[in-house]
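Action item from last week, closing it out:
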Amino acid sequence: MSEIPVDEFVGKIAYIGVMRMKSQHSMKLHTHGQFKELVVVLSGKCQHTTVFGSTEISKGDVFIVPENVGHGYARTRDVELINILYDSEKLNLPQLDLGVVPGYHALNTYDPRSGDVRYFGGTPGIGWESLKNVDYLTRRIEEELDNRTPGYIFTAAGYLMQIMSIVARSCLERQSVAESKLNSLSLILEYMEANLASAIQVATLAEIGCVSESTLNRFFRKLLNSSPGEHLLKLRVEKASQMLCHSVSTINEIATECGFYDTSHFSRIFKKHTGLSPSVFREQKNHLLRD
C-alpha cells in the first residue's frame, strides 16, 4: 500500500484540499495519513475497495474515510466523484449542534472489517439538489485554495462546514421519506406490478424509492434475497402464470403483456422458474381445473 503525497492535493499549508475523479483509471489502495476524506459521488458508479473487500458506490452516496485507512477505487470509467481531504485536528471545526442531526453520525459510521463504508448506515444518500450545492461549495473551496487570499483557510473551512451540514440534513430529510416508502416496498413494487409490460430501469426504481441504485440493490438483497431485476422477472412469471390459467390470451399476447421480449424469451424464463414451458403449464392447469 502506498501513501499518496498529501501536498499534491492540499498545498503548502496542509489543512484542506480537493481531488476530483472523473472517468479515470482505477486508483490503487492508498492512505492520506492524518487526513480524513469526505467522498461524494456526483454521477455514475464504481467499486470502492479496502484491504477487506469492495462495494459498489453510485450517484448520491457520501461517506468519510477516516485517517490512515487504506482505500481505493476500481471500475471508474463512468464515475465522477469529489474527494475533500482535511486535517480535522488542525482545522478543529466546531460541531456545535450538528451532533444532534442523525445524518452527521451516520456520515461518520465506518466499519473497516466489512470492507464497506456504510453510507448513512445503509439509508439513502443525498438528492440531486443537494449534490449540486455540494459541488458548488466544493468549487468555492478550490477557488480559495488556488487564490490563497488572506483568510482562505478560514473561508474554505466555512464552506466545508456548509457541505457537512447539507449532507447531514439531506440524510435526515430523505431518511424519513425513504423509510416510510421502503419499509413495505409498496411504491416500488406497485410501480413494478403496474408496468410489467414496459421496460423498467433500475434508475427509475431508485428514483421512486428516493435512494441511490447501490442502496436499492442492497435493500432488495437484504429484504427479498434478490436483485430488483430478479424480483421483476419473478413478478412477470407470476402474472404470466395467472393469465395462462385464467385467460384465453395467446402465448404471444401473454409474453407481450408481461414484458418479455418475445415468445422465445418468455418460454425460456418461464421454464427456468416453473420447470414447464408456458403451453405445457397451461395444459396441465386447465386439465386440473376441468377435473
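Closing note: The two ends are 70 Å apart (CA to CA).
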